[in-house]
Amino acid sequence: MVITPLPGDFALTRIGGVTGRFVGAGQALIGDAAPVQHAFVYVGFDMVVQAMPGGAECIPLEEASQVLEWSTGQLPDQVTWAQRKAVVETAHALVGTPYSYLDYVSLGLAHFRVRPAWVTEYVASTGHMICSQLVDEVYLRAGVHLFDDGRLPGDVTPGDLWKLLSRKRVTSTDRDLRRLANG
């Protein structure tokens, strides 16, 4: 089935090479294993905004990684056209935002509940974002909260976005596997 994304939708993709393996291993380590390692926002006119090591960029969809999953029609709450417009505008405004590998370390420390407050404050103060943080941030600024589990804004991996779109999908790394097995 071919999905036609709407402006303001996000996509989840695989990335190859060392970076893809690094992100995949990190996600598995913190219980967010998923077949995706990257996310971007569709801003219309066959263009996407994505966080990259050289900074967030706006590129043609055809140049982006192959999409495994679109958010189209899958978000928990209906996103209004006004919110979609805000997502697109915010994504464009974030082009050039620096990238930070430290954010991956912060996510890992948070998972193991050993993240010092200064790390949280530092990561928040830099304004740097990884791909999944950019997706979460554009939705937050548009008034759409993708996660209601008490996490701090930006504490999001591509695996978290995968689980959001796939709430009924259970993997061997699902932290709730025992609860699901025992009813």
Describe the protein's architecture and organization.
- The chain is an alpha+beta fold.
- It has a single domain (10-163), classed as endopeptidase fold (from Nostoc punctiforme), CATH 3.90.1720.
- The protein has seven helices and five strands, in the order βαββββαααααα.
- Strands 4-3-2-1-5 form a five-stranded antiparallel sheet, covered by helices on one side.
- Strand 2 (38-44) and strand 3 form a beta hairpin.
- Helix 2 packs across helix 5.
- The longest helix is centred in the N-terminal third of the chain and has 13 residues, at 17-29.
- The N and C termini lie far apart (34 Å).
- The model is unreliable at 168-183 (pLDDT under 50).
| CATH architecture grouping | Alpha-Beta Complex
Strand order of the largest sheet: 4-3-2-1-5
The best one-word shape is globular
Oligomer: single chain
- Runs in which pLDDT lies below 50 for 5 or more consecutive residues are 168-183
Tell me the number of structural domains: 1
The N- to C-terminal Cα distance equals 34 Å
Q: Tell me the series of helices and strands, N- to C-terminal.
A: EHEEEEHHHHHH
| Helix segment tally | 7
SS content category: alpha+beta
Instruction: Determine the fraction of residues in helical runs and give it as a percent range.
Output: 25-40%
InterPro entries: Papain-like_cys_pep_sf
